[in-house]
């Protein structure tokens, strides 16, 4: 039986923390669909199309990773693509409460779809897209935080 996992996120922009979770998921599941979703509580820096392009570029070496986007509910998308697993990364205890609420709602909507949590690599435990954008905005170094194509895209966005 094929095991398809969805790794959802806004990925605005993708960080090494995201990439770590995607790569580790690709080692466990037959296929990982990295699905770009818009977070309605945030104003994105990159368009969905730009995020998809960056994700494709930085995951191009992973044969079992596909990049896509969706606007609706994650569970509806999971059902649509035949995924049985949602792959999520946890950075700290503070992430757990939020993730538990989302997971509980997803289980209520479809109890056949499981959520797998992967603890982030310690070197990325502080990392978030918001922090990366803030550092890049003020011309701080993000070389160790994001892949090179993302760093170039951030510099272009902030006219550096």
From TrEMBL:
<feature type="binding site">
    <location>
        <position position="10"/>
    </location>
    <ligand>
        <name>substrate</name>
    </ligand>
</feature>
<comment type="function">
    <text>Reversibly transfers an adenylyl group from ATP to 4'-phosphopantetheine, yielding dephospho-CoA (dPCoA) and pyrophosphate.</text>
</comment>
<comment type="similarity">
    <text>Belongs to the bacterial CoaD family.</text>
</comment>
<protein>
    <recommendedName>
        <fullName>Phosphopantetheine adenylyltransferase</fullName>
        <ecNumber>2.7.7.3</ecNumber>
    </recommendedName>
</protein>
<feature type="binding site">
    <location>
        <position position="42"/>
    </location>
    <ligand>
        <name>substrate</name>
    </ligand>
</feature>
<feature type="domain" description="Cytidyltransferase-like">
    <location>
        <begin position="6"/>
        <end position="134"/>
    </location>
</feature>
<keyword id="KW-0548">Nucleotidyltransferase</keyword>
<dbReference type="InterPro" id="IPR014729">
    <property type="entry name" value="Rossmann-like_a/b/a_fold"/>
</dbReference>
<feature type="binding site">
    <location>
        <position position="74"/>
    </location>
    <ligand>
        <name>substrate</name>
    </ligand>
</feature>
<keyword id="KW-0460">Magnesium</keyword>
<feature type="binding site">
    <location>
        <begin position="124"/>
        <end position="130"/>
    </location>
    <ligand>
        <name>ATP</name>
    </ligand>
</feature>
<keyword id="KW-0173">Coenzyme A biosynthesis</keyword>
<feature type="binding site">
    <location>
        <position position="99"/>
    </location>
    <ligand>
        <name>ATP</name>
    </ligand>
</feature>
<feature type="binding site">
    <location>
        <begin position="89"/>
        <end position="91"/>
    </location>
    <ligand>
        <name>ATP</name>
    </ligand>
</feature>
<keyword id="KW-0963">Cytoplasm</keyword>
<dbReference type="GO" id="GO:0015937">
    <property type="term" value="P:coenzyme A biosynthetic process"/>
</dbReference>
<feature type="binding site">
    <location>
        <position position="18"/>
    </location>
    <ligand>
        <name>ATP</name>
    </ligand>
</feature>
<comment type="pathway">
    <text>Cofactor biosynthesis; coenzyme A biosynthesis; CoA from (R)-pantothenate: step 4/5.</text>
</comment>
<dbReference type="InterPro" id="IPR004821">
    <property type="entry name" value="Cyt_trans-like"/>
</dbReference>
<comment type="subunit">
    <text>Homohexamer.</text>
</comment>
<dbReference type="GO" id="GO:0005737">
    <property type="term" value="C:cytoplasm"/>
</dbReference>
<keyword id="KW-0547">Nucleotide-binding</keyword>
<feature type="binding site">
    <location>
        <position position="88"/>
    </location>
    <ligand>
        <name>substrate</name>
    </ligand>
</feature>
<dbReference type="GO" id="GO:0005524">
    <property type="term" value="F:ATP binding"/>
</dbReference>
<dbReference type="InterPro" id="IPR001980">
    <property type="entry name" value="PPAT"/>
</dbReference>
<keyword id="KW-0067">ATP-binding</keyword>
<dbReference type="Pfam" id="PF01467">
    <property type="entry name" value="CTP_transf_like"/>
</dbReference>
<feature type="site" description="Transition state stabilizer">
    <location>
        <position position="18"/>
    </location>
</feature>
<feature type="binding site">
    <location>
        <begin position="10"/>
        <end position="11"/>
    </location>
    <ligand>
        <name>ATP</name>
    </ligand>
</feature>
<dbReference type="GO" id="GO:0004595">
    <property type="term" value="F:pantetheine-phosphate adenylyltransferase activity"/>
</dbReference>
<keyword id="KW-0808">Transferase</keyword>
């Amino acid at each position: 039986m094929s095991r398809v996992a969805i790794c959802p996120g806004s990925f605005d922009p993708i960080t090494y923390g995201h990439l770590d979770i995607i790569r580790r998921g690709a080692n466990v599941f037959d296929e990982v669909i990295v699905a770009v979703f818009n977070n309605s509580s945030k104003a994105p820096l990159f368009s969905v199309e730009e995020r998809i392009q960056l994700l494709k570029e930085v995951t191009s070496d992973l044969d079992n990773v596909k990049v896509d986007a969706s606007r609706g509910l994650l569970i509806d998308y999971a059902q649509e693509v035949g995924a049985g697993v949602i792959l999520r990364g946890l950075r700290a205890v503070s992430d757990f409460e939020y993730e538990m609420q989302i997971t509980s709602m997803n289980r209520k909507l479809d109890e056949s779809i499981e959520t797998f949590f992967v603890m982030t690599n310690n070197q990325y435990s502080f990392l978030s897209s918001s922090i990366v954008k803030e550092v890049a905005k003020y011309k701080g170094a993000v070389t160790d935080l994001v892949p090179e194509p993302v760093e170039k895209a951030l510099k272009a966005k902030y006219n550096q």
